[in-house]
Amino acid sequence: MRKAILAAGLTLALGVPALAQDNEAFVEARGAQMSANGAAAGAAGGMLKGEIPYNAAVAKAALATLDATARTFGLMFPEGATSDEAAPDIWSDRAGFDAEIVKFQEASAAAVEASGKDGPADLDAFKAAAQPVLGTCKSCHEKYRLDD
Ligand code: HEC
After folding, report:
1. Separation of 104 CA from ligand 1 center, angstroms?
2. Which of 23, 48, 131, 137 for mutating ligand 1's site (highest number of atoms within 8 Å of CB)?
């Protein structure tokens, strides 16, 4: 799934002529990305709240998932690919939406960087790495996701 999304992202980034744009496919692809985000945030939140014992490998995987979404999510909103959940402001205020994407990308890239080869050393290190990323969810959803 992630490979397919990356390939779609690459096609867009390289400007390779695509077949007729399938808006429904964009909506589905970004929904899957956000569901992966939700799963990663769930694992992260479980550890942060002490409901799941801290595990560096789980922490590292969660941060990597968030980072993968951050890199390509912004490519899933071409003109016309609207949905019930996506605020019209994504298209009418594209600069504002792109700024939220950049915040998400910067936070998740920094978190991956900080987590090193084996994942954050302990829960405190994970908290410091993950919290700025999790803060970007709310910030973007408040402005650009309708049912929040
Ligand atoms: C840059 C903006 C942005 C950021 C950052 C962001 N989201 Fe979202 N999220 C959206 C939008 C827009 C939608 C609605 C998508 C649609 O219409 O396809 C959404 C939808 C969702 C959904 C519902 C998916 C579905 O299938 O309906 C979940 C779950 C979610 N986000 C979780 C998260 C989590 C967790 C984070 C942070 C780690 C996050 N999001 C960060 C913009 C964002």
Report:
1. 11
2. 137
Q: Is 141 in the pocket of ligand 1 (CB under 6 A)?
A: yes
Rg of the chain over Cα atoms, rounded to whole angstroms, equals 16
pLDDT tens readout for residues 54-88:
999 999 999 999 999 999 999 999 999 999 999 99
Tell me how far the alpha carbon of residue 100 is from its chain's centroid.
Answer: 11
Residue (of 134, 124, 16, 148) closest to 70 by Cα position: 134
Q: Does the CB atom of residue 35 touch ligand 1 within 6 A?
A: yes
Considering the segment(s) 2-144 as one domain, its CATH architecture is Up-down Bundle (1.20)
Residue ranges of the chain with per-residue pLDDT less than 70 = 1-19, 148
